[in-house]
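Recap from last week: sequence in, structure out.
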Amino acid sequence: MSHLEDIVSKLSELGYRLTPQRMMIVSAIEKSDDHISAEEIYAQVVAKYPHVNISTVYRSLELLKRLGLVTETDFGGGRLRYHPVGKGHHHHLVCQECGAIIALDESLLSSLKNALLREYKFSADLRHLAIFGRCVNCSK
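Predicted structure tokens:
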């Protein structure tokens, strides 16, 4: 079963309506090769449904996030991006100077997660994380 089918199945199972607009929103998230913003989703949906409002996109994203079907990552500067949970979790290094986004290997965070649990009795949710700093090009 595809990630799109997983999301649709979960929404249907929980009794949520599968409106054409909601389906377009889910499809835009699923088809994106990278994280996608609400504005990018809206641009895709409004091309087919000109009367849709961006608030519909935001409400749907909030629902999908609350149901644990998408993750929301803050890349700074008001750049919230969404990613389907079924496509896995990963982490990012975000350059505050040039805006570059570098993928971070998850294994680097396992010792942090273990230390937080051991030292602070805190179970950290590190499924999607953005760490801010400066890339090698901007640090020169």
